[in-house]
Amino acid sequence: MADDIEFTENGTAYDQKTRLSNLQAYVRQTDDNRLLSDDPRALIALAALVYKSNHPKPSGPLESPAPGKLYGPNDALPGSGVSLPKPPNKKNGYDGVAFYRPTARELILVNRGTETQADWIGNARAGLAGWIEGSSPALDYAKECVETLRKAGVPISQVTCTGHSLGGALAEIQATFLNAVLDNPVQVRAVGFASVGFPKAIAAIESDRKIKAAKSETSCHYVRRNDPIRLLYVGDKPRFEIKDIDTSIYEIIRRRPEDAPDHTEYYIDDGFFSHSSYLYFHLWDKPTPAHFLKTFGGTFRAVDPSSLGKLPHALGVVLASEYQ
């Protein structure tokens, strides 16, 4: 899902410009010697930035949000002068970008999540029946990046695969198969957000490429408890750990249905906000539920749930427990 959600909180408007600034600033302050795989908030920042709606230049690949620390396809790596391959941006739905951190010797593969109707179709196909057309290019791009660095003599201590939504599922596929398509194995870890993995897509790639899927004990997905992405998980056992995030997000929409004789205002609990990549970043360290209220004809704003009181059951929609 593209992150075009806008809201206000404590008087600050979180529009596209503010979101972009906050995401870039967090990546820039990360410790050069620390693997980003150990800093999940930095990874979700990159996963949010890779969406076209958060690109400073949407027509091209994502430029490095931390010049001199994080080198992307538009940058020449110090010492070797080589640049990482540009993302394929395949018409079949795959898009991603790679970065390299010289001090940590870490290659980071960031996969874009669902942003178009084709992506949502790919989500369903991968979750329910396997999706080789979109999954295989993610694996091929990962292999190309590793081989480019190796050919130039650039050391790699770890490959970190990440992404939000569909991007997190593709990260799992990359981590599952990367060593199987390389001559010399590397340390690989996947960290997904708002993603649950696509076991059927993995099985389809195993059959199509005649390679064996591996399992990493250190890979995981971070998923909010009320994130609707869980609806795509249809009972297959996940290959990697699912880490529940207790901070749920509730979108309370105040409406006045035209067919209501007294124009009564209703409140509807909607889980759409809980899938937002920016809100995964923004609320990462907040331990309590977050609530966003949209009044009739207004815009979303963060609110204190204690100020809402008991809300009426609305139009057959089940409200969150704290409102009942």
Tell me the total number of β-strands. Answer: 12
Order of helices and strands: EEHHEEHHEHEHEEEEHEE
For this structure, the CATH topology of the domain at 19-244 is: Rossmann fold
State Rg: 21 Å
Helical proportion, percent range: 25-40%
Q: Assign an overall shape.
A: globular
CATH architecture descriptor text of the domain at 19-244: 3-Layer(aba) Sandwich
**Which structural class matches the secondary elements?**
alpha/beta
Main β-sheet description: 6 strands, mixed
Strand content: 15-25%
CATH class of the domain at 19-244: Alpha Beta
- Ranges where pLDDT stays below 50 over 5 or more residues in a row are 117-122, 313-324
- Give the strand order of the largest sheet, numbering strands 1, 2, ... along the chain: 3-4-5-6-7-8
Integer average pLDDT: 79
Number of helices: 7
Distance linking N and C termini:
30 Å
Your description of this structure?
With 324 residues, the chain is an alpha/beta fold. The protein has a domain of 226 residues: 3-Layer(aba) Sandwich (Rossmann fold), CATH 3.40.50. Helix content is 26%, strand content 19%. The chain contains seven helices and twelve strands. The strands form three sheets. The chain has a six-stranded mixed beta sheet with strand order 3-4-5-6-7-8, with helices on both faces. Helix 6 links the parallel strand 6 and strand 7. Helix 1 crosses helix 2 and helix 4 packs across helix 5. The longest helix has 20 residues. The protein is globular and about 60 Å long. The C terminus is likely disordered.
